[in-house]
Structure formats: structure tokens, C-alpha cells
Amino acid sequence: MHGNEAAPEELFEQGLAALHLDLSAEVQQKFMDYIALMLKWNRVYNLTSVRKPALMVTRHLLDSLVVLQHIKEPRLLDVGSGAGLPGIPLALARPDWQIVLLDGNAKKTRFMTQAVADLGLQNVKVVHERVELFKPEQPFDTIISRAFSTVENMTEMAGGLLAPEGRLLAMKGVYPLAELEMLPDGFTVKEVIKLDVPTLDADRHLVWIERV
């Protein structure tokens, strides 16, 4: 499994090095605390199908952090955040960003609220609401989603929450060719970026969408 037998801490440290990310030992520990929380709540809430800590490092933590360099800060909305992915890893790595985690599932927002409190994240707000009903006080510089609906749906539902110069980022597995042909009017694909997630043997792409 490409080194997934290593201890989660070790695997995470190696992944950070591969991504050229320098995080303090204290922050790295918070990432491990986050995994422990997911494992604990997963028994009751079924937050994720990933059950092993080492796989969580690869498929959740590193898979989230790989998008850092593509985000336009400081205001970020994570749509359909689920267990807090990618928003919580991004918030841990960038405490100066303001991040809203949005999900319509009460169990998942309950977990995220607990995680944000336990991890001491001052820069995160959890909102329990469907994206099409969400009315933020101001628009977002970046709206991101991981495994939330199609690119077309994401753009239709969340596009109105985007600042004029903002960017929509859809995290995808294989290159989503068919989805890209269905974009609503007023939006265009700026770029599809191939992501290289350390120790992950699977395709990952980031679809970057802007207003026309």
C-alpha cells in the first residue's frame, strides 16, 4: 500500500515534506487529534468509509492539503464539508484564513462543531444549512468542495456566493470531462489541475472555475 504500514505521524510528516509544507509539531499533533476524533465519532455517525488512521492521513489529510497553493484567500467556503474535509485541514494549516464549513446534514455539522471546539480553531465557523438556502453576510474568495455533487450542480448552487474575482474549486478523482461540458452560463473553466497526493495511488484533479 505504498508505505501505508508506517505510523500515521510518520506518514503525515513525510507527506508534509513532499508537499513542501512546514507545520509546527503542535499543529501536526492537532491533525492527529482530528483523525482520533473522526475514528471515535465514526463508530456512531459513519462520517467516512476510511477506517484506518494511516489511510486517513493519505485520503483525508494530505488529499486536502494538496490544494493549499490553489486557494485565493482569505475567505473560504467549504460546501458539503461532511467530516470537515477539506476545510478543517486547511484551517489548521492556515490560521489566518476565515473558513466556513457548510453542510445540510445535522450529524455531520454536530461532529464538525465538536472538532472545531476540541482543536481550538478560532478561524472556522460551522453552518448547518443547504447550500442553496445559505445567505452569508459577504461573498467568498474561494468556494471549494470535495465529492459534493457534479461541477455543474456545485456552480449552480454555490456560484452566487462567490466574490467577483473569486474562484470555485471542485476536487475530483478522474478527469471529469463530461461534467465540464455542462457548466451554467456566466462561468468558465480556467484550468483543470492534476494533483499529486503523496502516497496516494489514484487520480486526483482540481477543477478551477471563474466567472466569465
TrEMBL record:
Top enzyme class: transferase
A GO MF label: rRNA (guanine-N7-)-methyltransferase activity
Residues annotated for S-adenosyl-L-methionine binding in this entry: G80, L85, V131, E132, R146
Catalytic reaction annotation: guanosine(527) in 16S rRNA + S-adenosyl-L-methionine = N(7)-methylguanosine(527) in 16S rRNA + S-adenosyl-L-homocysteine
Keywords associated with the record: Cytoplasm, Methyltransferase, rRNA processing, S-adenosyl-L-methionine, Transferase
CDD domains, sorted: AdoMet_MTases (cd02440)
Subcellular localization, as worded in the UniProt entry: Cytoplasm
Highest taxon of source: Bacteria
UniProt-listed Enzyme Commission number(s): 2.1.1.170
Keyword flag Flavoprotein: no
Any Gene Ontology CC annotation: cytosol
Keyword Nucleotide-binding: no
Short name of one Pfam family: GidB
Broad class of where this protein is predominantly found: cytoplasm
UniProt family annotation: Belongs to the methyltransferase superfamily. RNA methyltransferase RsmG family.
PANTHER family per record: S-ADENOSYL-L-METHIONINE-DEPENDENT METHYLTRANSFERASES SUPERFAMILY PROTEIN
Entry function: Specifically methylates the N7 position of guanine in position 527 of 16S rRNA.
Cross-referenced HAMAP family: 16SrRNA_methyltr_G
Protein's name in the database: Ribosomal RNA small subunit methyltransferase G
Gene for this chain: rsmG
